[in-house]
Write a structure and sequence with these properties.
about 325 residues, alpha+beta
Length: about 325
């Protein structure tokens, strides 16, 4: 086990497979010990059939938590070895019903003693261990049902990469990046409009000189995102021109930019932040809702593409 001690928890899958292989190899020998010619992987299907006279492949698969294809393959092996018999439903030829043969029923009788001895052996092993493996497995199954390991890794990846993102104030050196990032996402979904050209061609005059602010997101030193605050009046700002490069998505950059703009608006004395978007941009709408924005009906929009207006009250 030195290898697993060295590589740590990232090898959890490999270690569990190793433990499973160890137990499965012993299980095959246990069947031989009781003179039962059975493969360990048949056992869940076999056990279900010992409790009912017959059952469908679909019902067995649902009960033991395996796929229909996997159970079908196991059943074919068991039929070949004369443990079960298979019949088609008269009313639905696609449905097969499975039942134990005489050989299978004889094995079931032998298994009663095996089950008694195996249960006792496992209980003894549990009593010798510091941790209750069975309860730990149940807990892990529950936790992974709530949130898969894949999802947990994705969240950690996003968190780590998000920690490598730096937000800086706009300077003229980012003028081209500010325009290119916004043009990229706008033209991907819509068309550039007059108000877009005003803000992107002249950000200093249109945004900054009027009391607004622009944040640029840097990842590994490269500008990959941008977002602007446009002053509407002394107490309200518009969150606008948020754009994240497709190559840098999944790093929480939109969240970081949005929250930075909200914090800046509060710092500048605003009591509300307004925005306009389009409902087809579902990830963006979801982000705005997470940031606390709610749908409102505001003044007519200068943008043809805007079909939703949202606002976040700061006071």
């Amino acid at each position: 086990m030195e290898f697993y001690n060295k590589v740590g928890k990232k090898a959890i899958g490999s270690r569990l497979r190793g433990l499973s292989d160890m137990i499965t190899n012993d299980a095959a020998k246990v069947f031989q010990l009781y003179d039962i010619d059975m493969q360990p992987r048949w056992w869940p299907v076999f056990y279900v059939l010992t409790e009912t006279e017959e059952n469908s492949i679909t019902a067995i698969a649902n009960e033991i938590g395996q796929t229909h294809a996997s159970v079908s393959q196991i059943v074919r092996e068991m039929v070949k070895n004369d443990f079960v018999t298979e019949r088609r439903d008269k009313d639905d030829q696609r449905k097969n019903f499975i039942s134990l043969t005489e050989k299978g029923k004889a094995a079931a009788i032998k298994l009663q003693q095996q089950h008694q001895d195996v249960s006792a052996a496992i209980d003894k092993a549990f009593s010798e261990s510091q941790y209750d493996l069975w309860k730990a497995i149940e807990e892990w199954e529950y936790l992974l049902e709530q949130k898969s390991l894949l999802r947990r890794v994705e969240e950690e990846k996003k968190k780590r990469e998000g920690g490598q993102v730096t937000l800086v104030d706009y300077t003229p050196q980012y003028r081209k990046a500010f325009k290119d990032l916004n043009e990229e996402w706008i033209t991907q979904h819509f068309v550039m409009e007059e108000s877009d050209h005003k803000a992107l061609d002249h950000p200093e005059e249109y945004i900054l000189d009027k009391g607004g602010h622009i944040f640029i997101a840097l990842y590994n030193g490269k500008a990959v995102g941008a977002c602007a605050l446009i002053k509407m009046d002394s107490k309200k700002f518009e969150l606008a021109k948020m754009a994240v490069s497709p190559k840098a998505q999944g790093k929480s950059i939109g969240t970081l930019l949005g929250q930075a703009c909200i914090d800046k608006a509060r710092e500048l004395g605003a009591d509300a932040v307004f925005l306009e978007s389009n409902t087809k941009l579902k990830p963006a709408i979801s982000l705005y809702r997470k940031l606390g924005f709610e749908k409102i009906t505001g003044p007519p929009s200068p943008y043809e593409r805007a079909n939703i207006q949202m606002e976040l009250r700061l006071s």
